[in-house]
Amino acid sequence: MSAPRTFAAGYLESLLAGQPRLPASPLAWLNKLRAEAVDRVGVLTVPTIRDEEWRFTDLSPLTKLSFQPVRMPVGLKAADVERFRIEEATTRLVFIDGVHAPELSSAARDGGIVVANLSAAGAAQAAAIDLHLGRHVEFRDSVFAALNTAFLHDGALVVVPRDVSAAAPVHLLFIATQEGAASYPRCLLVAESGSTVTVVEDYVALQPETYFTNAVTEIALSDRAHLDHIRVQRDSGQAFHIANCAVSLANASCYRSVSVALGARISRYDLNVLQTAEGAECTIDGLALIGERQLADTHTCIDHAKPHGVSRQLHKCIAGGAAHAVFNGKIIVRPDAQRTNSSQSSRNLLLTGKAHVDTKPQLEIFADDVKCAHGATVGQLDSEAIFYLTSRGLSDAAARNLLTYAFGAEIIDRIPVASLKHWLEQTVLEQTTRQP
User: Fold this and answer.
1) What is the pLDDT of residues 225-256, one digit of tens each?
2) How far apart are CA 203 and CA 431, in angstroms?
3) Which residue among 326, 340, 348, 392 is least packed, with the fewest CB closer than 10 Å?
4) Residues near 37 by beta carbon (within 8 Å), at least 6 away in sequence
């Protein structure tokens, strides 16, 4: 066994050290799923820059540190998390360092929608859980997804019944509080036929600590279901955030996603969308706003497996300081996916000479009757636009901040939750003002 493999195995064993303390589930198949995930962690390794899919993301700063799940979560009061409240959301699930906090959560009140802690809802929602949990994110080939599955216990479960339209968004809030903590957030979102719902998946920190968040989200949309999925990663600037999300789209279903990455020393988000039936549609928008020595890596794959599918994607990165942004977006059109209409755009803004972006949009087309396009740009602020604004009385710094804000605000404006959109607009404006 080579030295790197030995080190990687030892590191993964240290992460698994807290797993035996998990209580057994009353669902036998769930215990089996966790056991299989533990076995997979023993086989897999931590990816390095020698792996093609990770060649721009060096995880060695993560593997030099020790993290363990918390034994006793910090007791928080409502006032401690008030600033994270979303006004429009009447239903909220809160998790502190990966542990469900029922005293800070509010129950579902909207048309029979199930919003519950995964471990508590096991028996009542066994059919939905069994059908989808661990079925969409492929943990057998991903060490971080396997680690998350090995620690499966608490998690966010959202089930929207047939033909129900949720009037208010559902807020899933994951709060990090402790230095050296490893948390494994899990979300399962199931939208039955003809249903409509908006879900906000929100990662926040109370202190500027170093911790490790390893999240997995699985989403299943039945025929004609509609989901707006807003994902906000605003971790501590010293944190590590790895996340996997898989989406399965049935006939004529519609998935709209907006993801915003602001925090973390190193973050990686893998989003995989599979269109399993005709007429499925997805719109994926993303923004990474980073500075100093942050690294934000986004990998997406939209897999058109059936005819008449539609996908639109716009991803933007704003990198200041010595930050490094990565975008790898793949669109696959299978032989049976005729009449696919797909477009992808990666637009990137460098604010300093030390910041850099690696972007790689990809098309893999195996059908002949399709309409597909992709493109990527990397550049700095338009000097003519800066001159125009300064000629009308703005300072050079104000002109640059305004243009940077406008670049990012295009993505923020697509969020359908007004109070969250306003907060993010203010945050983008403040961060662009602070950028060198």
Assistant:
1) 999 999 999 999 999 999 999 999 999 999 99
2) 18
3) 392
4) 139, 146, 147, 148, 149, 150, 152
CA pair distance 193, 181, nearest whole angstrom: 39
Q: Look at the chain and count its residues.
A: 436
Helix residue spans in 235-316 (DSSP H): none
How many whole angstroms separate alpha carbon 239 and alpha carbon 235?
A: 6
Pair type for strands 114-117 and 156-160: antiparallel
State the chain's mean pLDDT as an integer: 92
Paired tokens of 26: 């009353």
Q: How far apart are CA 357 and CA 379, in angstroms?
A: 10
Bridge partner list, 233: 203, 261
CA distances to 200, 305, 428, 429 from 397, rounded to whole Å, are: 34, 48, 15, 13
The dihedral built from the CA positions of residue 68, 29, 301 and 257, taken in this order, carries a sign that is negative
Beta partners for 373?
Answer: 343
DSSP at 119: T
Q: How far is CA 358 from CA 82, 122, 322, 325, in A?
A: 37, 42, 14, 6
- β-strand partners of 201: 172, 231
Tokens of 170: 């559902």
Q: Which two tokens stand for residue 380?
A: 């700095």
Cα(151)–Cα(15) distance, rounded to whole angstroms?
A: 10
Give the position of tokens 């208010």: 168
* 3-class secondary structure, 427: helix
Query: Of the given ranges (194-208, 260-274, 386-400, 411-425), which has the lowest mean pLDDT?
Result: 386-400
Q: What is the DSSP letter of 68?
A: B
The answer to whether 242 touches 268, Cβ cutoff 8 Å, is: yes
